[in-house]
TrEMBL record:
Residue span(s) of domain Peptidase S1: 140-201
GO molecular function per UniProt: peptidase activity
InterPro entries cross-referenced by the UniProt entry: Glutamyl_endopeptidase (IPR050966), Peptidase_S1_PA (IPR009003), Peptidase_S1_PA_chymotrypsin (IPR043504), Trypsin_dom (IPR001254), TRYPSIN_HIS (IPR018114)
Protein's gene: PRSS35
Source superkingdom: Eukaryota
Family of this protein: Belongs to the peptidase S1 family.
Protein name: Inactive serine protease 35
A Gene Ontology BP annotation from the UniProt entry: proteolysis
Organism: Galeopterus variegatus
Basic residues bias locations: 190-207
Region named Disordered: 190-238
Ribosomal protein listed as a keyword: no
Pfam family, one: Trypsin
Biased composition (Basic and acidic residues): 217-235
Residues spanning the signal sequence: 1-16
Amino acid sequence: MENMLFWLIFFTPGWTFIVGSTVEQDFMWHLRKIPRIVSERTFHLTSPTFEADAKMLVNRVCGIECQKELPAPSLPELEDSLSYETVFENGTRTLTRVKVQDLVLEPAQNTTTKGAPVRRKRQVYGTDSRFSILDKRFLTNFPFSTAVKLSTGCSGILISPKHVLTAAHCVHDGKDYIKGSKKLRVGLLKMRNKGGGKKRRGSKRSRREANGGGLREGTKENPWERSGRGRRVADGRPSFRWTRVKSTHIPKGWARGGSADAVLDYDYALLELKRAHNKRYMELGISPAIKKMPGGMIHFSGFDNDRADQLVYRFCSVSDESSDLLYQYCDAESGSTGSGVYLRLKEPDKKNWKRKIIAVYSGHQWVDVHGVEKDYNVAVRITPLKYAQICLWVHGNDASCAYG
């Protein structure tokens, strides 16, 4: 079983065989010119209350067949949606207006318009095809080491030495920031040493290390040291080193407040960590069409709530796509939302293959398809505009964001 898992994880993502008329050369990362997003002006906003419940307020999802009939958003509409809020560790908040340059407008293929029924709780379809990554050889190495856990219960992925990409609804419900996001933390995987080398129980040093150095003498035990079901994680099992979040960026397309509904297309957010990590991170990529994905497959790893603090990996084929969303049936449970969806494609003019993040897993949604409500697990694609915006958040300017 272990050898089979190794084969599935490390060889399946890099298929190079011929699929129909599509040959290996098509499964490549192609650099393309990225539109420029330039910060125009920043305003101070009132501090949020951090009182929202941890749930999405996306109530309307347009059917796949209606997406092709919708008019393309105007440039001012795009600039409004790509403007962004930043909330800082001390609770202060700003709004930054942006300008989009060098953009060629294309017909839009999705937006949010039609009502949908109540969401299901389960997001596993048929036979559960998820893999729990328990072997230290896999867990502490790339690409699995790029997965992180948020203190609000979601997942995320490392995209720079100090930045984590996740879903916007993991910190904001579309109207306000959720409870617990004011003191947001990110948990990076580590392995406990089994047996020898234990510190004396109750010592200040051992208690500080259990909390990543953040637990002071005389305080209560770190609640995040426990698993998602309340059990203490046993020696030899994975645990987390928790790091504070310095600031959070959310596109205005999602953070609408009381003015309008949040738009699923913008369910992504960037977290800046207070201190840098020393792990290898995964780069961003532009989401290609399904036919440009090896086997039409996508991959992601996250911390599904039904498996305690285990890292859970899955891959599946994409069922349908729009300009901003990928519709698929990858088995996933709550807790995995915010995971980075990635592909493994060949680099141009090179023999090696490279993984890049091409979407953020958003969760379960009902979609109207030819008048019938169908449920999917949905991921938000990284389009050229979103790539430019996230790149701006990471670097502070657009100088490093000309190509992606």
